[in-house]
Amino acid sequence: MKNIAIAIGINQYRNLQHLQYAKNDAQLFSDFLLRDAGFDRVWYFADDSPDIEGVSTEPIRSNLLTVLNDLSENAPSLEIDNLWFFFAGHGIQHKANDYLLMADSNPNLPEETAIATNLILQNLKQSKAKNVILFLDACRNVGRRDGRGIGDRTTADVKKISDTVCFFACSPHEFSYELPQYNQGIFTYALLEGLGIQHKRATVEKLEHFLKLRVSQLAEIAKAKQNPRVVNDSGDKHLILMPKYADKSDLLPLKNAAVKAHRDNKLDLARYLWMQILSIDGTDYEAILEIEGLAVERYKASLPITQDRVVEVASSPEMSMRQVNATTVENRQKLTDTNPLILDLGDGVTLELVKVPAGKFMMGSPDGKGDDDERPQHQVILQEFFIGKYAVTNAQWQAVMKKQGSANCDKEFQGDLQPVVGVSWHEARAFCAKVQQQTGKAVRLPTEAEWEYAARGANQSKGYEYAGSNNLEEVGWYRDNSGNVTHPVGQKKANELGIYDMSGNVWEWCLDELHDSYADKPENLKKQGNQAWGDLNVDNNDNRSRSRRGGSWIDFAILCRSAYRGSGLARDQINGISFRVVFASSS
């Protein structure tokens, strides 16, 4: 794997007003790539940057063109995985084209003296890098970074080129700002926070969300408005920017993309994505099986069609699966027995469920703790079942229901990996019925007992107040940290079973009717926690109160406790309620 970058920061302009911190931004970004991101080479262009292999890195037009031409001509032989381009300086729009202004550029003659962003894009893509990422902070002036309008043409060009993502420091017709107290531009300061050890935003999706919040916060210091944006050619927000910080929560979108690539017969891309998954979780049995299957398909595709073809495939070198992170063919069956159930929802979208072992637990809260409706605390016995690793997302809703997820809510709730909200209890059950039709798996909403047992960690429980921790900040989005919106699933720490977001982010519908306490709970339900308490044989006009659990992005921490019991009318459609599904092993 080879990772190469170009980082440009220009303070000293010959024909334009000087900048203060663009050079420092590029220097810090370059250092970060080499020190923390594992990049093999960074071409660093700045006012006093040293030559590289006899090539001048003075940030003038001819020097950058030399490096870009070299990349487009020679880089394909290097098999580059990631190629990043960072620019901090002035930019300008001229005749519907976007230009980056180098140290020697004349703003009155951009075609002759500046570099068009579409030329940069063409050269970067000719390198045959698997992923091209651009970070453009080209709207600077003293105190702010000038260049209003840059971005419109670049946006259109990026959308035409596959496997390319562009991060802009601000939106069209905005400025980007510098902060003397940080000796940096706002955008790069936030960018390094997000990519680095402090926040560990490993994917495009997570980094984009972080930048939108953080840049806006920093801009308030300058009493300004600055809104970064991301242009992604094909919506591949699953892309891993920082593999060292990726975790298992990043696997779901990667798996969806890998499945889609396989269906589209893009076998090399599918294998690349599955290998990324293994780099995060070397014991992912599904990835191991898929890579072996792809090896067979790729080998078969390379052979002429003969009677001996099957024999040749069976004995091919690629059929010998190499050891990956100590995971071998011999222990694959063990992995199959302990890993999640993955349902194919179509359109390259999957739904992952985690096995919850049979067992018993004390449901509710003891005297003197919690609310009255959480008592009396009582023992409940449950059989094994599977529960959604995450709340159902907008992408999953779209794949199954064939309509926009969270359609009744503002657009800020409609991201593919955000939980679907604005769905009633009846609609959640309809989703389950559709999934059963598509997959043959009888999924349903969880009972209250199943939900609480899973949230507490089942037989792996450590007795936490919230699902996975006594510190809600670690595991959930709530009133104090959500920014008044839902967040993509899986960004916080999982609980003991590897289940995410059961405290906070969104309330989750359960099957049960609401009851004021557990005092009248039938004895048979204490012995059969997989059965719901209440009438389920109802039509869509029924509006009785149903249980909901977990708390949401707008709630205080106390409502996000694993034992807390919320409720909502069955026909409620609000932006704080979602759901996750279960599948009984005996189904």
Automatic annotation (TrEMBL):
Stretches that traverse the bilayer: none
A biological process from GO: proteolysis
Gene Ontology MF terms in the entry: cysteine-type endopeptidase activity; formylglycine-generating oxidase activity
Alphabetical list of InterPro entries matching this protein: Caspase-like_dom_sf (IPR029030), CTDL_fold (IPR016187), Pept_C14_caspase (IPR011600), Sulfatase_Mod_Factor_Kinase (IPR051043), SUMF_dom (IPR005532), SUMF_sf (IPR042095)
Ranges of residues in domain Sulfatase-modifying factor enzyme-like: 352-582
Xref: SUPFAM superfamilies: C-type lectin-like, Caspase-like
Region annotation Disordered: where it falls in the sequence: 522-547
Pfam annotation, one family: Peptidase_C14
Residues covered by the Peptidase C14 caspase domain: 3-232
Source organism, top-level taxon: Bacteria
Protein known as: SUMF1/EgtB/PvdO family nonheme iron enzyme
Species classification: Bacteria, Bacillati, Cyanobacteriota, Cyanophyceae, Pseudanabaenales
